[in-house]
Design brief:
- There is one protein chain.
- By secondary structure, the chain is of the alpha/beta class.
- The chain has a single domain, classed as Aldolase class I (TIM Barrel, Alpha-Beta Barrel), CATH 3.20.20.70.
- It is built from 9 helices and 14 strands.
- The strands form 4 sheets. The chain has an 8-stranded parallel β-barrel with strand order 1-2-5-6-9-10-11-12, surrounded by 7 helices.
- Helix 6 links the parallel strand 10 and strand 11.
- Bound molecules: (5S)-5-amino-3-OXO-hexanoic acid (KMH) and zinc ion.
- (5S)-5-amino-3-OXO-hexanoic acid binds next to strand 6.
- The site of (5S)-5-amino-3-OXO-hexanoic acid has 13 residues, from strand 6.
Length: 270
Amino acid sequence: MEKLIISAAVVGAELTKEDTPYLPLTPSDIAEEACRCYEAGAAIIHLHARDREGQPTQDAAVYKEIISLIKERCNPIIQISTGGAIGMTTEERLEPLKLKPDMASLTVGTINFGDDVFYNPPKMIEQFAAAMKKATIKPEFEIFDAAMVTNVRRLAKQGLITAPFHFDFVLGVPGGIPATIKNLLFLQESLPEGSTWSVAGIGRHQLPMVCSAILLGGHPRVGLEDNIYYRRGQLAEGNAPLVKRVVRLAAELNREVANVNEARRILGLL
Ligand code: KMH
Ligand code: ZN
């Protein structure tokens, strides 16, 4: 198996300080969390930005500030979100791509998302893929349900994306595919040959999905965006404790953790 690439999704768009006081919201707090995760063993930082009021924003200036603060201290692979938050326009969501990050998330289909709809129709997906291709940004395909893998195959046929592909299975969102090992196996088997994948289990599913990824040759995503608890009833005191636990689990299961250069090679980013 390849070495294990740990992704940390440190803030997301949905949570507030009322959910957990450990959520970083300012550019300096987000950058500090990112570097704590990097020092703990994360190679990829999946990034969202918040404005001065703590609300989600896709303002490139805010992302730029966060990224430069991160780069003053550490050098992870930066993956910007183009999912943003529910209700944002296509133009808003695309805005931070102008910073030409290493990677960007690309959700490849529309789904119910709790009580909302996360809107990603075919033409929008094509526009996102084309923008990433033009800027040579590697997409991470966010897979919230099984049909989304088929949509990636369609993008490939249209010549809008280039192999090797990297997928992130986001399992356990209300409205998406449930976080079970059976579903994870099914999704893994449905990928185009030569693809890499990670899995983000939502809430209490984070830990079992981490363990499954380590055993199956995939890669884990952890962080407060997906799960705020360390264990039942106990909040994670920041993102780094979640990353450190992955590192310990990987050591016990004899899977080495990839540093950033190794992760770049595995993902074809070099
Ligand atoms: N905040 C969700 C609506 C992504 O980062 O690309 C979308 C999301 C996925 O978080
Ligand atoms: Zn996200």
